Amino acid sequence: MDIRALLERLQHSVSGDTAWGYMAEICSRDRWSSFDKYRESADYCADALLSLGVDDANAVPFPADGRTKFGDWMMPMSWDVREATLEIVAPSSTILAQWSELPDSLVMWSAPTPSGGTKAEVIVLKEGTTLEVESLDVRGKVVFTPEHPTRIKSVVSRKGGVGIVSDWLRAKDKPDAVQWINTWSDSPGGWAMHAHDSRIWGFSISPRKGALLRKLASEGDVELKATVSTKLYEGELCYTTGSISGETYPDEEVILMAHIAEQGANDNASGAAALIESARVLRKLISSGELPPPKRTIRFLMMPESYGPMAFAVRNIEKLRNALAVINVDGGAGDYDSDDSALGIYVNPLCCRSFVDAAIAGVARTFYEEVKNRPDKWAVHKYTLAGDNFFCEPLIGAPHTWLEMGDGGDYWHNSEDTPDKVDPRSLADLSAVTAGCAYFLASSGKGELARFAQRTMETFPDETKQILSMAMPQLRQGEGRRPKRKFIGALTLDGVPPETWKVIKSSPRWWNSYLAAWWWADGKHTIQQISQLLEAEFGKAPDDLDEFFDFLSGLGYLLRE
Ligand SMILES: [Zn+2]
């Protein structure tokens, strides 16, 4: 296949403005962070795919009841918001936060107040640590913290605090931005709220409003009033999926995925928009006969981060085991003239070496260096887990590459990640590369792909080559237990009481050596070999892997050895 010709054709066919329109539509629903709106967003994506002629496009529900588990992931409680306000009522009267004006001001899964609201005195934390809360009498008070509010949620609830206010913002020098708080678990490193988690409300306010509140509190008592009208319930979330059927190997899929159900225009309405735009141009070029139909099926998948792919993976494991490649598009399409629109390609981890990474890098290289003449706008990085790109783990085994065009930078997860921060030019490039990778992978023979990967590898700089060619170490042979896990996906310890945890201090749902050790626990590797594999990937391995697997075995997470 002439990749350059394919990419030139796609570059002419994609429209940054059309893609921008999809992004704005998704964002207008997801920005509310309310599950009724997430449903609308999933339906919007399904309708968009359907209207473009994508087969079987639909929004498939899965439980969001705070109990059901897919793998080790306990699904979130459903949560709808009607309105929420936080105001200072004494010594003066000022509105600090209002959900209908700025949805990010309400911490997700905030519990409702009585309908007339709750009035309480504020207590100001200096450090925002659990230790500090332990040392104070917060009963009946609103706790105001300079740190992430979830850090102190369980202790504030346990000690009878009525709510938490935070002016923590990851970005610096954005006095009016409000951080979106999308974790409300009582467990260390936890994420979504579950049925067994404590129920309390929280507000996120801007650094400027935080400074005002801190000043007033330093001068005397401050009384706040919170009125929160929300509903926590056992409902559903959806993953939206549809496909363009392959002519020769319809069961061998190339999957494009992007998470939705987050407030940001860059993270990640833009990723989902790039998928829909890819679907639009591929369908159009195939229908008009400009491109032959792909040999393999190209699937589109849009869903809430991590939870959605877990539900999809458990239900579609055989489909995934048969997939040629999965591409996760997550992380924005920022200002074309800034670094935030350079494309990062995060390759697979050591447990999933595949020619797919080099093939995708080769497509990106051809696009940026030959079609766009912008060799500065792409780079290859080592694996890290963005939440969704876990189908590469050995019990699934589908190569899963992550395309990230910036994460919104200073706008990441705050109220300023709005549609005006998405650049149609970046979004057009992202769509062209995404469609190009999908079509090339879906339409070429495996031999052709491997040869292309090999050929293109020779043209990469040494650093890129090194990342793409990380080699398996020579494993020491020996006897010993070969742990085999029961679940696919990342380890979370959701629902396991933190006081019973051993070895682990924080939920190992993100990429680190314990999660990698969990993934290597496929029944084929001894603990000593797992240690060697971790050393090869991370430079060193934890020395308590035996205790780690004892702990997991005690939880019933491993099959009988
Ligand atoms: Zn994201």
Draw up the topology in text.
Blueprint: H1 3-13, H2 16-30, H3 35-51, E1 55-64, E2 69-70, E3 73-74, E4 78-90, E5 94-98, E6 118-124, H4 130-134, E7 142-145, H5 153-158, E8 163-166, E9 201-204, H6 207-219, E10 223-233, E11 235-244, E12 249-260, H7 269-287, E13 296-304, H8 307-315, H9 317-321, E14 325-329, E15 343-346, H10 355-371, E16 378-381, E17 400-404, H11 424-443, H12 446-457, H13 462-468, H14 513-520, H15 527-538, H16 545-554
Parallel strand pairs: 6-7, 7-8, 8-9, 12-13, 12-14, 14-17, 15-16
Antiparallel strand pairs: 1-11, 2-3, 4-5, 4-10, 6-10, 11-13, 15-17
Helix pairs in contact: 1-10, 1-11, 2-3, 2-7, 2-11, 7-11, 10-11, 10-12, 14-15
The structure holds zinc ion (ZN).
CATH architecture of the largest domain: 3-Layer(aba) Sandwich
Q: Supply the number of helical segments.
A: 16
Spatial order of the strands in the main sheet?
Answer: 1-11-13-12-14-17-15-16
Measured as a percent range, the helix fraction is 25-40%
CATH fold naming of the largest domain? Aminopeptidase
User: What kind of sheet is the major sheet?
Assistant: 8 strands, mixed
Count of β-strands:
17
Q: Tell me the radius of gyration.
A: 24 Å
If you had to describe this structure to a student in words, what would you say it looks like?
This protein is an alpha/beta fold and 561 residues long. The protein folds into 3 domains: 3-74 and 236-346 and 353-449, Aminopeptidase (3-Layer(aba) Sandwich); 79-233, Glucose Oxidase, domain 1 (3-Layer(bba) Sandwich), CATH 3.50.30; 472-561, no CATH class. Helices cover 33% and strands 20% of the residues. It contains 16 helices and 17 strands. The chain has helices at 3-13, 16-30, 35-51, 130-134, 153-158, 207-219, 269-287, 307-315, 317-321, 355-371, 424-443, 446-457, 462-468, 513-520, 527-538, 545-554, and strands at 55-64, 69-70, 73-74, 78-90, 94-98, 118-124, 142-145, 163-166, 201-204, 223-233, 235-244, 249-260, 296-304, 325-329, 343-346, 378-381, 400-404. An 8-stranded mixed beta sheet has the order 1-11-13-12-14-17-15-16. A 7-stranded mixed beta sheet has the order 5-4-10-6-7-8-9. Strand 2 (69-70) and strand 3 form a beta hairpin. It starts with a helix and ends in a 7-residue tail after the last helix. It binds zinc ion.
